[in-house]
Write a structure and sequence with these properties.
The protein has about 400 residues and is of the alpha/beta class. It has an eight-stranded parallel beta barrel with strand order 1-2-3-4-5-6-7-8, surrounded by six helices. Strands 9-16-15-10-11-20 form a six-stranded antiparallel barrel. One of its GO terms (molecular function) is NAD binding.
Length: about 400
């Protein structure tokens, strides 16, 4: 599930200058959507690139194909100053609902906004979810129980957006019933809370890998090969690196060059990843050949505990360098498997072992190194059920 952060910035926030400050903070933090009134859509477009949802304030109209695109929202939201926020009574028979009528008409609105005052509004939100691409729900006196109920009942019918005011509330919304809301609608002027909520979104979306150990069985000096350094646009921590290897089923953890040495300055943006033929793991769970990487591509950064994040490739350096062939064995359910890779013969290239970071030049047979092992073959980087021999 791809999590998103929506930022509330309608007239309830204050005048345009107050709304602008909040929107600017959201753009800088990396929110996915900004929710405003229709009159502010073009202003938001001028501030930066972001999805814009607009409250219709009860005056919903069919989108004009000839209208200026800058004035048209990506999603029109019905419910403000209507039944959704309690400004109008919800009819006893929902077939007479004005908000639902608008949502059910093509081209008028794709999102519904409901404040949960009591069980009747929770039921109304369920009805809105059947007609809306996005259903925004904001709890009043109670939040968790109605959110749990909606997650359980709505399923995949809509993109559920839960109202929150802090990053911690966002985390709770994302984790509720172990499924969580698809998105959160954040209502705060606190720049730190906006940034932290985006960080929570990113954390919740990241893959957690199960790393295992492999025992080094052979280290052989080879001739020179075309070696690839991945220079990212991101700084890496001391326990982070990338997963690379000659065989798609077994990738070695190679540390970023964060360590200082007497001869070479640290380069915490760099992983010396091996020869051009090798695989590197990507954020979508696939792989790419090192030779394929280009500036602007995304690669997966992983730490020694298997926590992952994304990094943008800024530059790829390919140079001829002397190499080691490193072979290791992995204990599997079916016995023992062999994996290997080529890494540059240099003290600055370090792998994660049971005893901590270790330069490839110091590796010995019997050392245990951290690897990511999966028994599926890959075709164009995608895991497939197919018999492929790699040796």
């Amino acid at each position: 599930m791809t999590r998103q952060v929506w930022l509330k910035a309608d007239d309830e926030v204050g005048d345009w200058e107050a709304r602008k400050r909040r929107i600017t903070a959201g753009l800088e933090a990396g929110v996915d959507w900004v929710v405003v009134d229709e009159s502010d859509v073009a202003r938001v477009r001028d501030l930066g690139a972001v999805n814009v949802a607009a409250f219709t304030n009860g005056d919903v109209h069919v989108m004009d194909a000839e209208a200026d695109e800058a004035e048209e929202p990506d999603a029109a939201v019905v419910g403000k100053d209507g039944e959704g926020d309690g400004s109008m009574d919800i009819p006893g028979d929902l077939s007479g609902s004005a908000d639902l009528s608008v949502l059910r008409q093509d081209g008028k609105a794709s999102a519904g906004y409901v404040r949960i005052f009591d069980q009747r509004y929770e039921e109304f939100a369920e009805a809105v979810a059947t007609a809306a691409d996005y259903t925004i729900v904001v709890g009043e006196d109670w939040q968790i129980i109605p959110l749990e109920n909606l997650i359980a009942r709505i399923g995949d019918e809509t993109n559920l957006v839960a109202g929150v005011t802090t990053a911690e509330e966002a985390r709770t919304a994302y984790e509720t019933l172990e499924i969580g809301a698809d998105s959160v609608l954040l209502d705060t002027d606190d720049v730190d809370e906006i940034r932290e909520t985006v960080e929570v979104r990113d954390e919740m979306s990241r893959e957690q890998l199960e790393l295992t150990t492999a025992e080094i069985t052979e280290i052989e000096q080879t001739g020179s090969a075309d070696r690839v350094c991945i220079d990212t646009g991101n700084l890496m921590e001391h326990d982070e690196g990338m997963l690379v290897g000659s065989m798609s089923r077994g990738l070695f953890f190679v540390h970023a060059e964060t360590a200082e040495s007497p001869y070479v300055a640290s380069r915490p943006f760099r992983v010396n990843a091996g020869a051009v033929h090798a695989y590197v793991r990507t954020p979508d769970g696939g792989t790419k050949y090192l030779s394929e990487l280009r500036s602007g591509d995304e690669v997966q950064v992983v730490d020694t505990e298997g926590r992952t994040r994304e990094a943008i490739v800024g530059r790829v350096k390919i140079e001829k360098r002397p190499m080691f062939r490193i072979s290791a064995k992995v204990e599997t359910d079916d016995g023992v498997d062999r994996i290997e890779t080529l890494l540059q013969n240099a003290e600055t290239i370090k792998v994660a072992t049971a005893d901590g970071r270790k330069a490839v030049t110091d590796l010995e047979e019997g050392d245990e190194v951290r690897v990511f092992y999966g028994d599926k073959a890959r075709h164009f980087g995608e895991a497939i059920e197919e018999s492929i021999i790699e040796k």
